[in-house]
Design goal:
By secondary structure, this protein is an alpha/beta fold. The protein contains seven helices and 27 strands. It is elongated.
């Protein structure tokens, strides 16, 4: 057997970031930025009011109080989007709305809650300091300032900032398109009655869902029957249209499987036995440069292999930096004896429920049965506890945990 790190090194050594493309902001969410973005103008581009109120000279309201308000003549109104064409002189005030350009002559805003009006006169009952409630030009970003560096994952807030500096497109690494193939005469779909020996295909639906969750584009390559030509045709189609391929099943050392024979003919595959549980068998190679991840057939093994091996490789193709390829291992506290085990030289990835406790730490308890064919406990689990080789972790002990839904 080899270690998970050795297997992952083989995967990451063959997965490379895709070439950057120019994408509109409507398609950039979740992608990795591939350029340096600079501000070409100030944001905001002009000084503006942060509040509804009156633009005034602070000296005119310095002595204002409730029983002796300052009296100022209102000379106009400035709404958001209007040009700041009004000058505020001594003893004058201009009604101003939030976001409206700040007029020359004034140096502060008195908020509407501290004022009353009497015709064209405003009474100000509290003093205001110079600069109060005024947003200066360039307060958020100054012209010539670096906005974002390459390597960030573009989130919703980034899109807003990019729009604010006048960008409608950016250079980014596209998310990989990943084909998913199931094989086997025993597999069926839908809700009809099962014939003897048949099982419903769950892995394909699960893997396509994991890809969508992680921001990748999944392509359903269907179910290939136990026929070499059918398998070859589907793999060739996937390699021609996808950036990577996931298969499930047929990767054990002792398997006599059509998909294994076809992959050996089409690709330089590594057939590995990894010192982890579940997901011990794993295969990896490439068809015409397109990475192929051969995941185990047991449903939980397939999902765990995806999490610890395929997902990091796909994230590298998507341009994610090294530190972001793997899920971070977070300390957790075991609340019961469910993480005890028999020594077998392998690291266990135990399906657990992780709850944040009052002590600020995650508390872990098993999500249910841990056999690799039991999909329901994996579905309800929100984390994988990493249990090193040995006798496991007793109640009250610490274990690293990978959060599946951070």
């Amino acid at each position: 057997m080899i270690s998970l790190e050795q297997a992952l090194d083989r995967v990451l050594g063959a997965c490379h970031p895709a070439p950057a493309v120019t994408v509109g902001l409507d398609r950039a969410l979740g992608l990795v930025l591939a350029e340096t973005v600079m501000a070409v103008e100030d944001v905001p581009p002009f000084a503006n009011s942060a509040m509804d109120g009156f633009a005034v000279r602070s000296a005119d309201v310095q002595a204002a109080r409730a029983d002796r308000p300052a009296r100022l003549r209102v000379t106009g109104t400035i709404a958001a989007g209007a040009p700041p064409s009004i000058f505020v002189g001594v003893g004058e005030a201009v009604r101003i709305m939030t976001g409206a350009p700040f007029p020359a002559g004034a140096d502060t805003v008195v908020i509407v809650e501290t004022t009353t009006t009497d015709g064209d006169v405003v009474l100000v009952s509290e003093p205001a300091t110079a600069g109060a409630h005024v947003r200066p030009a360039g307060e958020d970003l100054a012209a010539g300032q670096q906005v974002f560096a390459p390597g960030i994952t573009i989130g919703a807030g980034h899109l807003g900032v990019l729009a604010s500096v006048g960008r409608d497109a950016v250079s980014a690494v596209p998310a990989p398109t990943v084909g998913v193939l199931s094989t086997g005469d025993e597999l069926v779909e839908g809700g009809g009655p099962l014939q003897p020996g048949q099982i419903r295909d769950s892995n394909r639906r699960t893997l396509l869902g994991l890809l969508r969750r992680d921001g990748f584009s999944g392509v359903d390559l269907g179910i290939a029957r136990d026929d070499e030509e059918d398998i070859r045709r589907r793999l060739e189609s996937g390699a021609a249209s996808c950036d990577a391929i996931l298969t499930s099943g047929g990767v054990s050392m002792g398997d006599f499987d059509f998909v294994k024979k076809v992959l050996e003919d089409m690709a330089a595959m590594s057939w590995m036995q990894i010192a982890i549980r579940p997901a011990k068998p794993f295969a990896f190679g490439a068809i015409a440069g397109v990475p192929v991840f051969g995941l185990p057939g047991n449903p939980v093994s397939s999902m765990v292999s995806y999490e610890v091996l395929a997902r990091p490789g796909l994230r590298r193709i998507a341009g994610q930096p090294e530190a972001a390829l793997r899920r971070p291992a977070i300390p957790g506290v075991v609340d019961d004896a469910s993480l005890l085990r028999r020594p077998d030289g392998r690291t266990n990835y135990t399906r657990v429920l992780a709850t944040m406790g009052a002590d600020g730490r995650y508390h872990l308890r098993t999500a249910g049965g841990q056999a690799s064919n039991l999909l329901w406990p994996m579905a309800v689990a929100d984390a994988l506890a990493v249990v090193p080789p040995g006798t496991g972790v007793p109640a009250g002990g610490e274990a690293s945990v990978l959060l599946l839904h951070p």
